[in-house]
Amino acid sequence: MEAAESILRINNIEVRYHEVILVLKGVSIVVPRGGIVALLGANGAGKSTTLKAISGLLKTEDGEVTDGAIEYEGSYIHHDHAANIARKGIVQVIEGRRVFEHLTVEENLKVGAHLRKTGSVKEGLELVYHYFPRLREKRNETAGLVSGGEQQMTVVGRALMTEPKLVLLDEPSMGLAPKLIHEIFRIINQLNQEQRISILLVEQNAKLALNVAPYAYVMETGRIVMDDTSDTLRENEDIKDFYLGLTDKGGRKSFRDVKHYKRRKRWLA
Ligand SMILES: Nc1ncnc2c1ncn2[C@@H]1O[C@H](COP(=O)(O)OP(=O)(O)OP(=O)(O)O)[C@@H](O)[C@H]1O
Ligand SMILES: [Mg+2]
Q1: Which of 62, 151, 215, 246 has CB atoms 3.0–4.6 Å from 97's, for a disulfide?
Q2: Domain ranges of the chain
């Protein structure tokens, strides 16, 4: 991990909302250039907050990085405005596939085009349609009326239109059928491999995330409690119990049952 050149280094950040609510309590994450890194964690752990701290969207929610630093391509961005950060090549695909419902699919894609530096809008659309042939078919349909999977493709496509270097993906699998999830993850993998886009992927679906990302971090209540290669994490008993649902009994254990995990958490905290 340390050996590879990094595109993003989050160094021990603290994040507060409304000056008083401490949500991130010392989070450090490294994304290698051209790599995919997963960030796993339960509801409310602080995953989306971490992504918003990077993209600058935090400021629109009266949140702030109050300690630590975020370094992107060698310069600090944690006090930058979201628009500046976007211009530098970071795009966040926010949770819940927010399309502009009344616009067509193609109009939604064009919204991402104003940040383009090199290629034309037409080239951008062609690239998106190359990766998401379904969107070409649906391009003139109202985005609010296409399927959930197609909306997710639309928001990822819109991000792609900005010619990003680093994509922050917040739970792309949420609420989608397994077949579509598989398709979207295959495309994410292709974008990484073929377009050399670096990706920080937030997921609650750990199995998927560990398959697509070679390295992952696990977050609990505002702290990173584990980070390792996905191969190692997949074999970790706590991860199996808690995130992969691969217990001996075959059932997914509740948080309370996973005792050694809780102990380790305390130890790491
Ligand atoms: N704008 C806000 N103002 C105050 N507190 C917030 C705000 N946004 C998030 N929080 C709090 O910060 C904590 C982390 O939230 P966050 O959305 O980052 O978690 P998450 O890991 O993305 O969860 P989920 O899996 O449910 O999306 C939660 O306790 C949440 O209530
Ligand atoms: Mg979230």
Answers
A1: 151
A2: 6-230
Measured from CB, residues less than 6 Å from any atom of ligand 1 are: 17, 21, 23, 41, 43-49, 61, 63, 95, 204
Decide if 26 contacts 14 (C-beta within 8 A). yes
- Name residue, tokens 């290669």: 229
Is pTM beyond 0.85? Reply is yes
The fold of the 6-230 domain, in CATH, is Rossmann fold (3.40.50)
DSSP SS3 for 40:
strand
Give pLDDT tens digits along the chain (269 positions).
445 799 999 999 999 999 999 999 999 999 999 999 999 998 899 999 999 999 999 999 999 999 999 999 999 999 999 999 999 999 999 988 889 999 999 999 999 888 777 779 999 999 999 999 999 999 999 999 999 999 999 999 999 999 999 999 999 998 888 888 999 999 999 999 999 999 999 998 888 899 999 999 999 999 999 999 999 999 888 888 777 665 444 444 444 444 444 444 444 43
Closest ligand 1 atom to 49 CA: 18
CA 148 to ligand 2 center in whole angstroms:
18
Query: What is the best residue among 14, 21, 58, 169 to mutate for testing ligand 1's pocket, by most ligand atoms within 8 Å of CB?
Result: 21
